[in-house]
Amino acid sequence: MTRDLAAFVGGRLAAAALFVVVVSAGAFVLVRLAPGDATAELFLSRASPAEIADARSRLGLDRPLLVHLRDWATGLVTLDLGQSSVFGRPVSDLVRERAGATARLAALALLVAVAIGLPLGVLTGSRPRFAAFVAPVSVALVACPPIVAVLALLLMAVATGWMSIAPGSYAVPTLALALPVAAMLERLQSQALADALSSPDLIAAAARGVPPARLVWVHAARQSLLPVLGIAGAVIGSLFSGSLAVEMMTSWPGLGRLMFDALTGRDLFLVAGCALVGAMLIAVGNLAADIARAVVDPRVRGGA
Amino acid sequence: MTTRRVSTALVALLAAAGLAYWFVNTREGSAKPATGTRGGRLIATHRSEPRSLNRYVSPNLAEELVSRLTQDTLVRLNLSTGEIEPRLATEWTNSPDGLTWTLTLRDGVTFSDGAPFSAADVLFSFEVLYDAKVKSPIASSVLVAGSPLTVRALDARRVLVIFPAPYGPGLALLDAVPILPQHKLRSAFDAGKFRDAWGVTTPPSDLAGLGPFVLREYVAGQRLLFARNPRFWRRDEQGASLPYLDEIEVQIVPEQNAEILRLEAGEVDLITDQVRPEDLAALQKLQDQGAVTLNEAGIALNPEMLWFNLDPASPRARTRPWLQRPELRRAISHAVDRQRIVQTVYLGAAEAVFGPVTPGHGEWYLPDLPRTDFDPARAKVLLGSMGLIDRNGDGKVDDERGETARLSILTTKGHTIRERSAAIIQEQLAAVGLSVDVVPMELGSLLSLLMAGTGDYDAVFFSIVLDSFDPVASLDFWISSGSFHLWHPAQTKPASEWEAQIDDLMLKQSTTLDRAERRRLFTEVQRIFAANLPVLYFAAPKVVVATSARVGGALPSVLSPTVLWNAEMLSLVPAPAGSTRK
User: Fold this and answer.
1) Are A251 and B252 in contact (CB under 8 A)?
2) Upstream peptide bond of B96 is cis (omega within 30 degrees of 0)
3) pLDDT tens digit string along A266-295?
4) What is the DSSP pairing of strand B84-86 with strand B75-77?
5) Is B257 within 8 Å of A46 when comparing Cβ atoms?
6) Which chain B positions have a beta carbon within 8 Å of A86's beta carbon?
7) Does the ipTM surpass 0.85?
8) Residues of B in contact with A41 (CB under 8 A)
9) How far does Cα B516 stand from its chain's mean position?
């Protein structure tokens, strides 16, 4: 690894660590400041005021915010993310179980999205007639909120019986996450490829007699990779943000659903824990994308 | 002539027999056989997952479901009929003062791991229930006059349950107490680790129970798989051992649209929650095709309600004293067309109601209570009687200071039924000149406001959960010192004469053992409530539970868990001929 690449990676790592801490601490503070707390559920189950007061004390909700935050941060240093008030279990255990499921789903969705989006982008970028059919579908999919995409896929699965919708089945959640990303990649790859094909060096290559297929699939595709890599961070972010609706609708036991349970139960430590791990996954994804870009294009390292 | 008469009689007899045969078979076809078919896996959905496998430490619906499937109680409240049924106790007697119950335990019962059940397990369960370290959330529902029950063993097969005061519902209280295996949990309890025992990560093989099923597998966030407990004590009328089903798989599906889709796809047999009105039409079509059965359990016990802040210290009432006048509540009740809410919000799947006790409460419901029928002209007269009249001709009533009479109704954001109902109430009150602001709030924010007890609101449109038919279960709603006496909670002494009367009647009602006398007292309570209307009710939904057509033996209840409360009697029957289900 060259010195400038090492410096680039070091800088990105520090930024990622700061991002993770700010996101998780921010989540903790926001949930603590929002009206209502974890004892609301007790109130609905008609617990007595004494029981509610006892629960508030047990959960530390009677302590000042800064003291509470300090205790959480102290635990964080020793990798103790606290105890979930909703599940009555260590937050670290819960997020470990669920983050794996989300990461698996996200990785598979990314793979499917890349496998569909990039070749399709090359095709539509090199054949404008083909693009006329594909582009409207891609634009619709990019604009489609995850909840609509997953509902449509569930309806299709029910109507056709082609895909199982049983909890734990991969087909519907993977496609629901992958299709909008594939559409985004297709649009970007298509534009980048069209730009590359009109660049002077590729026009010259064509004039030199390089076969059209090689020109498109080797030379132009390689050149158009950089802009696509540039949005890799955003893609990874969208996979995690979209996973909330997808996991809810498809009963996927991932981090998004855990975060939803934590938010509805006003579970401070669990919200912060989910935010921490979610931010870490996004940071790692972004870091990987940044490093890939830096390896492909040395100019990126200078901007670090 | 005689031959003709005999022939006619024979034909008539055959026709009658044929008709009877057709009728019986048709009825059986829809009502499912009394005796179930052995075997099969029933797949149900549930919205939430358990946070513990121990009902004593976590009181939510998922834990209750796990407890109902894997544990058993001394007696059970039949959620379909409301009657008390023998379970681990086969018979019981009561002392003349009504305080001491002697229960005889069922002979030959063993836990799912083969250990024998005895009175020691009953004593252990109550010891855990009331233990200060365990802090069981279900303990407060097993107190009488604020004190615990005393439980003693006479011998291995008989226990005494001593109530600290006479208690109207009697042994129904014991329905909340699953009997735990002392041999499995005593050491954790003695070590002060009971709350951590039987967590969701505990291997299912470490659990033991007296219920019809045992937990075989729990996949966090996905499913619970229960297998038949071959040692379950109960047999059906033909002497066949129960449960009929080999397995019950409970899939965790947190989203209701996804639940309905799964039922429509034929991937699940049962949705544990009730069906929303907007889903009924689609499911009705599937029922017509023979794929789904819609089981009407009755009218819900917890209709949405509009209550007013009647705390005299409320800051709102200082500037607008008319907010606390009974004429206002009566006027609003007359101004709202309940049928419109029934038809528009519930799409017809509800009944107009005028009080907290709906037809779903069975014997406690009074169909002849005085009603405030839809009568906008009467509403205007009542508003006028408080000095709320249109003084400037803008169509809105003004108070005596000439300011527009305006009140706000808080409700929860995202709850479709509440938001739509509140919008109709707002529109219909505008028609009589009363200005209303509907304020949808996040649930947490609304509950936080109510818990604070500062009384800083005009009115709230919300509902509360009821888990019993018996009015004593809602004592904290009826009596003025109760924390759920929503319109003016936790009063140190009754703020009004009528609240004092209700306090007196409800306390008597809760300690009277004679059921007829309890009904009489509660009738009086309802009449006083109807005369003062601290809370307004408009519509109560019909509780409809959807199952696949192959589910037999369902006895749906308006209480949760609507069908799985009687899981041992459920069975899977072949799909009816002509079913077009995929």
Assistant:
1) yes
2) no
3) 899 999 999 998 888 888 888 887 887 777
4) antiparallel
5) no
6) 51
7) no
8) 60
9) 23
